[in-house]
Amino acid sequence: MAFAQGSRSSLSYGVESTFGVAATGTYGGLPIKTHSLDLSKDRLQGMDIYSDRMPRVSRHGNRQTAGTIEVDLRKGNYDDFLESGMMSSFDSSDVMTVGTTPKFLTIEDALNDITQFRLFTGMTVSSTSFSIAPNQMVNTVFTMVGANMTVSGTGKTTSAAVINDPFDSYSASMYEGGVGSGDVISIISSIDFSITISFAPTFVVGSDTTPQLEFGRSIIEGTITAYFEDLSLLNKFLNETESEIEINVDAPAGTDTYTFWFPRIKYNGGNIPLANEQSRLVTLPFEALYDTTATTQLKLTRTS
């Protein structure tokens, strides 16, 4: 008997034409670190009271899929997921802003050593989080929500992933308060930010799977942690001064930059704890707001 091994597992995906209907054609391989995709079902329990106190009825109810996919961000491999997470798409200039059009994916989880395949349909990115810190790759987590899952002994036709070099913190730069001219910040210890849509199923009578997913506002928030050397950042929180942030990430070759530009942000905190005898750090949570000139909260540009 063979047990399924993580080292023999793989993820692939296709873009759906119709929500919840498995994508056709060849699926693209997806480089991943971990994932927790799964199907869950609600429980229906009979509430009849019996003198022996023991329940008689238990049934399965609504079905839905969810989980996370954790990756090291790199050129090209996750653009469909980034588009799903921003409800938008890259234009002919390789620029994408926050949009209003959902993008749904079919994802196949292949347990290759035991020839079993779990197929997740109606999947979309409900939240995307990024973590940039010293001595690590640009860690990215896609939080997925979807409609259903089936299991088969036959997998989809897949193409091998073209695995580009992952982005790292040493090939990254950050500008605060203006873009590209003398305001690069070299005191950042880490920066984390997330894009949240909050997709959720809308169940109806007559079906245990959702006919569609509803969604909320675009919430983009993050946290900057920096070495505390002066009041330049803290004063923006104290005085409620709006600012802007640009983050550039790349691989060591320096030829495949992804630029995240937040044209209008507001700091909502400025914590400076005394944790030990080492350097003091200031932690500044921020939120990205709609900017009338840029007409977006976030602009993502890929340069190749």
Mean pLDDT across all residues, rounded?
93
**DSSP helix count?**
2
SS strand fraction: over 45%
Helical percentage: under 10%
Q: What is the helix/strand order?
A: EEEEEHEEEEEEEEEEEHEEEE
Low-confidence regions: none
What's the main sheet like? Answer: 18 strands, mixed
What overall geometry do the principal axes of the alpha carbons give? globular
Structural domain tally:
1
Report how far the terminal alpha carbons are from each other.
47 Å
Annotation, overall tally of beta strands: 20
What structural category arises from helix and sheet content? Answer: mainly beta
Radius of gyration computed on alpha carbons: 22 Å
Describe the fold and architecture.
It is a single chain. By secondary structure, this protein is mainly beta. The chain has one domain (8-40, 60-302). It is built from 2 helices and 20 strands. The chain has helices spanning 79-86, 234-238, and strands at 9-15, 27-30, 34-35, 38-45, 58-72, 95-97, 105-111, 116-132, 139-146, 148-152, 158-159, 168-176, 188-196, 200-201, 213-214, 219-227, 243-250, 258-267, 281-288, 299-302. The protein has an 18-stranded mixed beta sheet that branches. A hairpin with a 4-residue loop joins strand 7 and strand 8 (116-132). The longest helix has 8 residues, at 79-86. The protein starts with 8 loop residues before the first strand and ends with a strand.
